[in-house]
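Quick one: examine the sequence and fold tokens given here and explain what the tokens say about the fold. Here goes:
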Amino acid sequence: MNERDHLRREPDASFEENVDILMVDDRPENLLALEACLASPAYRLIAKPSGEDALRYALQADLRRLALILMDVHMPGMDGYETAMLMRERKELRHVPIIFITATYKSKSNVKQGYLSGSIDYVFKPFDPDILRWKVENFVSLYRYQRELNHKNALLQERNREIELVNRRLTDAERRLLQHQKVLEQVVEERTKQLREANQEIYRSNRRFRTVFYTNPNLIAIRRLHDGTYLDVNDAWEKVTGCDVERMNALGEAALGIRESDRREADPHDGSKQIEYTTRSGERRHGLLSAQVLEVNDEPCELIVITDISERVALQKHLNRLDRLNLIGEMAAGIAHEIRNPMTTIQGFLQIWRKSEAPLPAEHIDLMLSELLRANQIITEYLSLAGNKESQFGLHRTQALIESVSPLLQAVAVMAEKSIEVRCESEGVYVRADENEMRQVILNLAKNGLEAMDAGGCLTIRTHADSEAAIIDVIDEGPGIPDHVLEKLGTPFFTTKEQGTGLGLALCYSIVERHQGTLAVTSGPRGTMFSLRLPRVAEDEVTEGTREVEA
């Protein structure tokens, strides 16, 4: 038995379930007669007394199991023809069979109107129950077979879609496979090209490196980081030091006698440091040593470069010597000029005393003594500026340094009708300094500030600190320092005072430099501030140093 016969002769049991049959008649006895004629467990009979009720049911109910409509033609209100035509307008009822049952409308025109209204059969009353039952059974069977056919058509369409999807997927997979294969071939070709170019570049880079390495005039060596074994040295290294790789591995750094130099020609930003090393002839040379970590055969190594700067060091020494000679010449000229004046005064008084042979008046002697003291002061400040005096460093609180000179400054300020305000914004801050030299710096800066102000002015001395330095600010309320004067501050013998020596600020800068500090100045129309910064001593050093002083 083929599948077609199976579909025709053995319907699916799922389609043998109850079906709905809609009966429409305005007379209850007619509806009862239809129910009695068609009573069956396979049917669900739905009775409606009018066309309106039938339409209302069609709008609200589930019509998927509606297999047949039995409708009376002559009904009050909406007759069977009109009801059938309205039902046919709904998509769900467009193909549901309608059988008209009538006892009055039996003419051909009535039958024709019935068929035109959408019916498929026309039954006259009184009807034969068996014939009506057979007709209903046939229409129900057609309905069930149609449902089963629709279901199998749907399954067949679904199966066709699945097969089409599988075929499309297979086709897409083959297409993607081919595309992927082409892409892989292109990737392999491109990768091969890149590897070939990379190998060529590596070869060229190695050649360049070897050329730079072996022909570089600087001393270059490569050694492993983990054990310090030298892998290679260049020609300059071997020529200058007389040590090849084997000798370097045997002797290590002792082969060159490397020692860090006391000079500071190196740049701390690039990690280089100045050293002294020994050549194969025993000569001590100066060089800049720098090291760079790199990988050689996937192993961390160190590239050591020594740049010879012996000529530069010698030149710098010569330049420093010339600079000192130039400074000494300038200072000697200034000292000669400053000392000649008091010496001329003393010489004049002595010549007068020799000719007159009379005792000199006391005021003349006092004047000569003051001129001698002035000359002695100039020589003393000159010697301090030259750095001949050795500084005696100790631990001192910045506040104590200010307090030690405060009485003298207050007396000077009162005599000049001015005032001094001391503000300590940080206590317990220590610096390592020569107490007398720091007092001299503070006194010099404070006296300059007092002299720059008019009567009634206030000089402020403020101490504070940050994480690295102790700071002493000397702030006056004077008219400020012109720009052209600011550029020359600290130059020996440069002064704007009538009786100044021009060595005060130069001496201050010299002392601050010996203390590894800085002296900055800012000036404006409302005053000038000198800011002295000295390295701050750590707290643990303060404790130890204080104990030593107390002991």
Q: What stands out?
A: The CA atoms of residues 183 and 189 lie 10 Å apart. The first helix runs from residue 3 to 9. The first strand starts at residue 19 and ends at 24. DSSP finds 15 helices and 18 strands in the chain.
